[in-house]
C-alpha cells in the first residue's frame, strides 16, 4: 500500500475489532482488511464498542494493539435497538438484499439511526486533524459524512458500501430514500464491490434525483461525488500460509478422519436469510433424490454461527433451517450416515482453513451478497495438486470476478443439484485449471489491492475549500 506523508487514516465502522493477528479468531474479513490498511497508514479506527451504557456519554476507550489504535464508544440501549437492530438490520439490510417483504419502515428506527450517526460525528470530530483521510464503512453510517461536514470537517471523506445497492424501484419504497442518497453527495468518493451495484446507484441518482454522470463522477446541481467499483479481497498469502499451519492441519485431519472416505461439501455462512441456506439445503436434497447412488458417498457440512439474534427474522431463519435439516436427515439418514452436519458454532479462520481444504466442494449460494469472502477463502485454502471445486451463486458480488467457479442460480434446486454432480465428477485436470484461474485472481486482487485502490482514489479527490461564513 502506498503510504502517504499527507496525514493519518481515520477508519469509521460500526464494528471495530482489535486485531489480534488476522487468523487467530473468528473475526470477519472486513476487520482484517481494515486493520491491515491502518497498520500501513497509521491512524485511528473509530466505532461502536458493542457495549451498552445507560446514558450516552461519548467517552472514548482507546486501545493500541499490533500497530492499530482503536477508539470505541458505548451506545445506549435505545440506540442499539433503533440504529443497529432497527434501521441498519431491519430496514436497510433486507431492503438492500432485495427483501422488501422483510423490510420494516418505522419512523423510530430512522430517527434513532440519524441520532446515533450525529452522536458518532460529534464524538469523533475532535480526533480529526486537518490532513487526515477519513474512510467510513457500510450501511450503518450513510449520513455520517454529511454530519461531519456540518461540524466543519473539510477533510477528504470516502465511503465504502459492503452490501449490494438495490435496484431503483426497490429503493424508492424506502421513506426518505432521496435524503439518504442526497447525503452521499457529501462524500468525495463512494466505493462499491461491483459495477452492478455502482450502476444501480447511478440509476437511482439519475432517475429519482436528476443526477448526471460524467465519467466516474455523479453530479446533482453543484454537488458531485466520485464513484469506484472496487471488489474487496482477502489476505490470500496469509490465508494460504494459515492453511498449512498447525491448527489448519489438525482440523484438516479431523475432517478427513470423520469423513471416512466420503466426499465433503462445505458451507460456511452467518445464519442470515440472505445467504440462501434453505435453498441450499433444498438443492442438496434434490441431488440426493436425483442421485441415490451417491447418497452414502457424500455429506454436507454446514457451519452457520448465529447472527443478529435479537432480530426476529434471524430467529425465524434459525428455526426454519433447523426444521429443514432435521427433516432431510430424518428422511435420508441411515444408521451409519447422515446427509447434513448442521453446526451453529463459529470457528476461527485457521480451523476453517483446514475444513475448506478437506472439502471436495465449497458450496456458496447466497441469494444476494455484497461480496462473500468465504468463496475466496475456500479457493485460497485448497491443495494446488488436488483442489476442490467452488460452486458459487451468480448473485454474490464475488461472481463478477470468479468466473471459473461453477456459477449457479441459487433459487434453482436443479442447478444446485446438477452443479454438485458436475463437481463430484470433474476430472482432476479441469479442477486444477479452474482453481488456478481462480487463485490467480484471489492473489492478484487481494485485500491490499482493494484498500490501495480506494485510498489512492480518495487521495486524488480535491480538498474541499472552507466556505466563507
Ligand atoms: O457486524 P454484523 O452485524 O455481525 O455483521 C457482519 C458483517 O456483515 C456484513 O458483511 C459484508 O461485508 C463483507 C466484506 O466486505 C462482504 O463480503 C459481505 O458480502 C457483506 O455482507 C456487513 O456488511 C458488515 O458491516 C458486518 O460487519
Ligand atoms: O465460523 C466462522 C464463520 C465465518 N467466519 C469468517 O467470517 C467472514 C464472513 O465474510 P463473508 O464476506 O463471507 O460474509 P459476511 O458474514 O461478512 O456477510 C469470513 O472471513 C469467514 O472466514 C469465521 O471467522 N468463523
From TrEMBL:
Say which family it is in.
Answer: Belongs to the glycosyltransferase 20 family.
- This protein's pathway: Glycan biosynthesis; trehalose biosynthesis
Q: What is its EC number?
A: 2.4.1.15
- Known catalytic reactions: D-glucose 6-phosphate + UDP-alpha-D-glucose = alpha,alpha-trehalose 6-phosphate + UDP + H(+)
Its subunit composition reads: Homotetramer.
NCBIfam families, alphabetized: trehalose_OtsA (TIGR02400)
A molecular-function term among this protein's GO annotations: alpha,alpha-trehalose-phosphate synthase (UDP-forming) activity
InterPro entries given for it? Glyco_trans_20, Trehalose_OtsA
Q: Which branch of life, at top level?
A: Bacteria
Q: Give the matching SUPFAM superfamilies.
A: UDP-Glycosyltransferase/glycogen phosphorylase
Task: List GO BP terms, alphabetically.
Answer: trehalose biosynthetic process
Traced from the root, the source organism's taxonomic lineage reads: Bacteria, Pseudomonadati, Pseudomonadota, Alphaproteobacteria, Sphingomonadales
Alphabetized, the UniProt keywords read:
Glycosyltransferase, Transferase
Function of the protein: Probably involved in the osmoprotection via the biosynthesis of trehalose. Catalyzes the transfer of glucose from UDP-alpha-D-glucose (UDP-Glc) to D-glucose 6-phosphate (Glc-6-P) to form trehalose-6-phosphate. Acts with retention of the anomeric configuration of the UDP-sugar donor.
Q: Which Pfam families match?
A: Glyco_transf_20
Its name, as the record gives it, is Trehalose-6-phosphate synthase
Is Lyase there in the keyword field?
no
Q: Which residues fall in a coiled-coil region? A: none
Amino acid at each position: 500500500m502506498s503510504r502517504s506523508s499527507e496525514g493519518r487514516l481515520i477508519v469509521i465502522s460500526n464494528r471495530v475489532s482489535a486485531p489480534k493477528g488476522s487468523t487467530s479468531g473468528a473475526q470477519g474479513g472486513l476487520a482484517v482488511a481494515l486493520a491491515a490498511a491502518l497498520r500501513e497508514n497509521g491512524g485511528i479506527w473509530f466505532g461502536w464498542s458493542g457495549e451498552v451504557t445507560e446514558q450516552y456519554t461519548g467517552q472514548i476507550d482507546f486501545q493500541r494493539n499490533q500497530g492499530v489504535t482503536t477508539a470505541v464508544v458505548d451506545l445506549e440501549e435505545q440506540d442499539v435497538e433503533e440504529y443497529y437492530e432497527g434501521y441498519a438490520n431491519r430496514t436497510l439490510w433486507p431492503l438492500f438484499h432485495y427483501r422488501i417483504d422483510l423490510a420494516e419502515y418505522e419512523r423510530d428506527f430512522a430517527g434513532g439511526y440519524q441520532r446515533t450517526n450525529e452522536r458518532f460525528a460529534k464524538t469523533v470530530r475532535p480526533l480529526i486533524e486537518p490532513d487526515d483521510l477519513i474512510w467510513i464503512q457500510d450501511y450503518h453510517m450513510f449520513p455520517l459524512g454529511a454530519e461531519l461536514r456540518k461540524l466543519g470537517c473539510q477533510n477528504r471523506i470516502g465511503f465504502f458500501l459492503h452490501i449490494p445497492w438495490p435496484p431503483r424501484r426497490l429503493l424508492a419504497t424506502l421513506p426518505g430514500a432521496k435524503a439518504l442518497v442526497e447525503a452521499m453527495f457529501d462524500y468525495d468518493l463512494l466505493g462499491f464491490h461491483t459495477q452492478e451495484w455502482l450502476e444501480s446507484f447511478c440509476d437511482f441518482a439519475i432517475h429519482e434525483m436528476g443526477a448526471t454522470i460524467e465519467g466516474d463522477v455523479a453530479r446533482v446541481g453543484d454537488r458531485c461525488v466520485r464513484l469506484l467499483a472496487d471488489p474487496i479481497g482477502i489476505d490470500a498469502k496469509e490465508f494460504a500460509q494459515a492453511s498449512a499451519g498447525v491448527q489448519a492441519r489438525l482440523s484438516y485431519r479431523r475432517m478427513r478422519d470423520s469423513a471416512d472416505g466420503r466426499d465433503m461439501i462445505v458451507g460456511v455462512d452467518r445464519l442470515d436469510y440472505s445467504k440462501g441456506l434453505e435453498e441450499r439445503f433444498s438443492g442438496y436434497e434434490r441431488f440426493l433424490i436425483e442421485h441415490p447412488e451417491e447418497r452414502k458417498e457424500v455429506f454436507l457440512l454446514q457451519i452457520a454461527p448465529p447472527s443478529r439474534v435479537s432480530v426476529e427474522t434471524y430467529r425465524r431463519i434459525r428455526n426454519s433451517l433447523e426444521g429443514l435439516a432435521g427433516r432431510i436427515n430424518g428422511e435420508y439418514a441411515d444408521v451409519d450416515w447422515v446427509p447434513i452436519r448442521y453446526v451453529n458454532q463459529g470457528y476461527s479462520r485457521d480451523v476453517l482453513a483446514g475444513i475448506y481444504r478437506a472439502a471436495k466442494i465449497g458450496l456458496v449460494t447466497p441469494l444476494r451478497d455484497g461480496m462473500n469472502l468465504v468463496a475466496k477463502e475456500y479457493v485460497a485454502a485448497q491443495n494446488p495438486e488436488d483442489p476442490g471445486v467452488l460452486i458459487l451463486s451468480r448473485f454474490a458480488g464475488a461472481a463478477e470476478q470468479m468466473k471459473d467457479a461453477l456459477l449457479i442460480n441459487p433459487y434453482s434446486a436443479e442447478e444446485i443439484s446438477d452443479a454438485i454432480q458436475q463437481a463430484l465428477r470433474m476430472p482432476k485436470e479441469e479442477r486444477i485449471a479452474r482453481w488456478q484461474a481462480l487463485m490467480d485472481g484471489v492473489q492478484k486482487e487481494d485485500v491490499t489491492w482493494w484498500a490501495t485502490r480506494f485510498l489512492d482514489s480518495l487521495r486524488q479527490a480535491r480538498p474541499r475549500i472552507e466556505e466563507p461564513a
